[in-house]
TrEMBL record:
Family the UniProt entry places it in: Belongs to the inositol monophosphatase superfamily.
Superkingdom of this protein's organism: Bacteria
Top EC category: hydrolase
UniProt name for this protein: Inositol-1-monophosphatase
Co-factor(s): Mg(2+)
GO BP annotations listed: inositol metabolic process; signal transduction
Family annotation (InterPro entries): IMPase, Inositol_monoP_metal-BS, Inositol_monophosphatase-like, Inositol_monophosphatase_SuhB
Transmembrane domains' residue ranges: none
UniProt EC number: 3.1.3.25
Keywords: Hydrolase, Magnesium, Metal-binding
The organism of origin for this protein: Candidatus [Bacteroides] periocalifornicus
GO molecular function: inositol monophosphate 1-phosphatase activity; metal ion binding
Amino acid sequence: MARLQPVCQATIALAVEVGEFLRAEARTFRKEAVEEKGRHDFVSYVDKTAEGMIIPRLRELLPEAGVVSEEGGGTQKAEEFNWIVDPLDGTTNFIHGLSPFAVSIGLTFHDVPVLGVIHEATHRETYYAVQGQGAYLDGKPLQASECGSVDAALIATGFPYTDYSSMGSFFRSMDYFMRNSHGLRRLGSAATDLAYVAAGRVDAFYEYGLHAWDVAAGIAICLEAGVRFSDFQGGDDYLYGGELLCAGSGMFEEFRDIIAGFYRG
């Protein structure tokens, strides 16, 4: 996928531009501008404007690609290449003046993430990768954590906000990791969670109730940094399946088996 390098560089510039727009809007944003798409699912003119900045430019970069976006503007899936976009990942953080929040742009080929760009706007950090070309943070190579066991790991997770069907399993898993790891962190942005796994800042991540636009870019980046993935049953339905776990190779199998034990059946 080396031919995607120029596309990646253009996507980085676009994500940084949109990130600057988000930072500027955050300084004056008023909660009255928020619309509720569903319970705990928010959108504002900021999300929509950011999406409007992104999608036309992506169509110019790769005209044959489809687009799948959280806000739905221009969504049309293609057979081979598809952009998967979250113009503002961490909307609730943004609304309340918290960090992090990020621009997340992924590209899939036959539903395999092959390019990812995440611009974490509050710290102005840009994570990116192209399949087979390595993963980077502002030009510096990324490598997943070498942590070898769950009991020595710092684990990130996210709280489901619309799907409460597995809350019992989720609470039991939290209880276990609170007692048997270095701790749990909840950032409020799945894209940033995955970027931090790629950077080795946290050792593992798991969440259910996800959408492809939450994770596509992060998957591409993490895979190039040596992170391993599965769904909660150890399968490979983690892009569109709604549940995802990941960790570096040293603890992946242990982590996967623990999660599977809580969510089995």
